[in-house]
């Protein structure tokens, strides 16, 4: 394949390269996601070479926007703005010098990789040849450990790529490569982080938010919608279900023992979420639950709550502490939205002393007296659906 551009983005992936016979499918999904992330930007085609993807640039392509967008694409380990030249050592020397001159440095090294074994110099010989040329012109020190600058040279069958900077991507797998799930999303800190982690495993998410309006204000819904907008940067299109939960809560509060209210709330949430998940074609549900963090998240209570669904429950934060989750929220950009003031259905009608070790027989007995299946159907009928696009 001939490369028509002399300036491009060289995209490296990691996990995608480990997929064996399925690798082509993952590469295609990653290429499609890259194209979606760059919608509206003037750029050349995305192409595939062995173990790499290439994004050709045009003179009008805004590099700053490209860097920002690609840094959000799951599946990308790192990427670099590179120059592609012919497989000629003199041309490689001159190109390396032109590329490194854009940076200020007192020490450097050359890191060559030779995939095209027909090139007459091996990687070590390229390092020595180009390194001597750069040292003579720059007077900088060659340093193999922690240099100020590394000049990367990749010799492939499609040309020689020269670059100095590796910009980190988020890693993981391309969204959509691993089917669909639904995420139970509050407007707090934990569930957006859980959603991010599951999307990073290649899972396409839809979101479900339970609210207690008019007994709570609309801040929870507003914050949740903003969180979905932020998360949609990674999967480009999202569906949010806004479920009015207050009538079910009121019925449980009226008829159920105080200590079991939260467990019963959550059991009915899971029932509704499973119904919506199956309508979406989703194969699992995602929560931000963390073992022992609150009363409903003891092992006994999680067992009692998830009993009502046959879908797998994914809990990516189960073993994290709060500090770790907060740090993750800051890193992915959801923290500031999550700490905005709000009231949601998890903060209203909650008893002071909830049960921490649910007795399943008692749960079944209480639910048998509730008879609120009609409320569940009414709640589903009143659920609002919103769509978000990047």
Describe what you observe in this structure.
There is one protein chain. The chain has 390 residues and is an alpha/beta fold. The chain has 2 domains: 7-168, 2-Layer Sandwich (VC0802-like); 180-389, 3-Layer(aba) Sandwich (Rossmann fold). The protein is 38% helix and 21% strand. It contains 13 helices and 15 strands. The strands form 2 sheets. Strands 1, 2, 3, 4, 5, 6, 7, 8 and 9 form a 9-stranded mixed beta sheet that branches. Strands 14-13-10-11-12-15 form a 6-stranded mixed beta sheet, sandwiched between helices. The two termini are 32 Å apart. The mean pLDDT is 92.
Shape: elongated
Percent of residues in beta strands? 15-25%
Unreliable spans: none
**Helical segment count:** 13
Oligomer classification: single chain
Keywords:
single chain, 390 residues, alpha/beta, VC0802-like, Rossmann fold, 9-stranded mixed sheet, 6-stranded mixed sheet, 13 helices, 15 strands, elongated
Give a topology summary.
Elements: E1 7-13, H1 23-37, E2 46-49, E3 52-56, H2 63-70, E4 76-85, H3 89-100, E5 107-114, H4 123-138, E6 141-142, E7 149-156, E8 159-163, E9 167-168, E10 180-184, H5 190-199, E11 204-211, H6 219-231, E12 237-244, H7 246-255, H8 261-280, E13 285-286, H9 299-306, E14 313-314, H10 322-332, H11 335-338, H12 360-370, H13 373-382, E15 384-389
Parallel strand pairs: 5-6, 5-7, 10-11, 10-13, 11-12, 13-14
Antiparallel strand pairs: 1-3, 1-4, 2-3, 4-8, 4-9, 7-8, 12-15
Helix pairs in contact: 3-4, 5-10, 7-8, 8-9
């Amino acid at each position: 394949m001939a490369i028509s551009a002399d300036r491009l983005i060289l995209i490296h992936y990691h996990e995608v390269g480990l997929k064996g016979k399925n690798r082509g499918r993952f590469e295609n999904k990653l290429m499609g996601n890259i194209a979606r992330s760059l919608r509206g930007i003037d750029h050349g085609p995305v192409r595939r070479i062995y173990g790499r993807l290439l994004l050709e640039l045009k003179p009008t392509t805004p590099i700053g926007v490209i860097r920002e967008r690609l840094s959000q694409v799951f599946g990308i380990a790192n990427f670099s703005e590179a120059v592609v030249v012919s497989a000629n050592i003199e041309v490689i020397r001159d190109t390396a010098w032109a590329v490194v001159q854009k940076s200020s440095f007192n020490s450097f090294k050359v890191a060559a990789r030779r995939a095209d074994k027909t090139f007459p110099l091996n990687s070590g010989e390229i390092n020595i040849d180009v390194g001597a040329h750069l040292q003579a012109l720059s007077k900088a020190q060659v340093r193999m450990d922690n240099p100020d600058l590394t000049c990367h040279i990749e010799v492939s069958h499609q040309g020689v790529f020269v670059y100095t900077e590796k910009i980190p991507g988020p890693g993981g797998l391309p969204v959509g490569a691993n089917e669909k799930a639904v995420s139970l999303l509050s407007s707090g800190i934990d569930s957006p982080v859980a959603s991010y982690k599951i999307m990073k495993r290649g899972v396409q998410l839809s979101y479900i938010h339970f609210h207690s309006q008019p007994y709570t204000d609309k801040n929870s819904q507003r914050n949740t919608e903003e969180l979905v907008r932020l998360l949609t940067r990674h999967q480009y299109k999202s569906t949010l279900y806004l479920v009015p939960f207050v009538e079910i809560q009121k019925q449980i509060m009226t008829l159920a023992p105080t200590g079991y209210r939260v467990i019963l709330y959550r059991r009915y949430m899971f029932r509704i979420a499973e119904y919506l998940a199956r309508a979406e074609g989703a194969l699992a549900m995602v929560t931000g639950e963390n073992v022992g963090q609150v009363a409903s998240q003891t092992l006994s209570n999680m067992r009692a709550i998830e009993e009502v669904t046959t879908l797998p429950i994914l809990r990516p934060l189960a073993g994290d502490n709060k500090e770790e989750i907060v740090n993750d929220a800051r890193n992915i950009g959801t923290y500031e939205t999550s700490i905005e003031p709000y009231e949601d259905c998890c903060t209203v009608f909650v008893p002071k002393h909830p049960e921490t070790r649910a007795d399943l027989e008692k749960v079944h007995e209480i639910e048998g007296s509730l008879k609120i299946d009609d409320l569940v159907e009414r709640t589903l009928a009143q659920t609002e659906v919103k769509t978000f696009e990047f």
